[in-house]
Amino acid sequence: MTSTTPLEGTVALVTGASSGIGEATAVALAERGAAVALIARRQDRLEQLAGRIDGDGARAVPIQADLTDAGQARDAVARTVSELGRLDILINNAGVMLLGPVQDAPLEEWERMLDVNLNGLLYCAHAALPHLIRAAEDGPRGVADMVNLSSVAGRVVRNGSGVYNLTKFGVGAFSESLRQELAGRHVRVSLIEPGATATELQSHNRPEIRDGIRQRFADIERLESEDIAEAIAFMVTRPRRAAVNELMIRPSEQAD
Q1: Separation between Cα atoms, residue 177 and residue 98, nearest integer Å
Q2: Which domain holds residue 169?
Q3: pTM of the entire structure?
């Protein structure tokens, strides 16, 4: 019989945990036995989520951090290990999606995407890697996991999505290179590419861009955060011999 707590004795760090996919993933991993470090900028939301997880009998530590700052990313990983004892799973979920034409685009939107989607992910990966290697060598499962959140936009280029495409293609390239580097050490590096999902992601856009996104997906049922969280939980609970390298998940009605 398959254990209902396959992650018992492990520690997971989830970035962007204050809402959406990050929040749902933290809950899903805690339900499977992991202690969870919750990383984001909104401390109040992190504390609410930690209380919910603790109330369900698991353990969660809220850590407020701006991961676009390399020092804060490093400190968040260090605090995770200090308070929870180890690090077995890193979920690089934090990201922003700011769409629109390249011509006359606000440069601060591009800078924000590069900082969060690329630099924040890289800083967390760099800080976590020694701990993940150690967990694979002496942890309860003999394997460790890094899951990087990309997007269908990491596979399919669209007009009006150029810089977002750039960041998500970059996440895919980095993930595959790191996967090859670590393949012989039982640190699995996985990429997940969600399609249209009902989260706060589109709300960060300018009003005219939000309207366009809303119209594009008006006639389809979008994914829920829990759909992505379940897919991530599947990836990190595979037996040591199996690695899900890449997983794209779209709404049934989304054609591209």
Answers
A1: 26
A2: 11-249
A3: 0.95
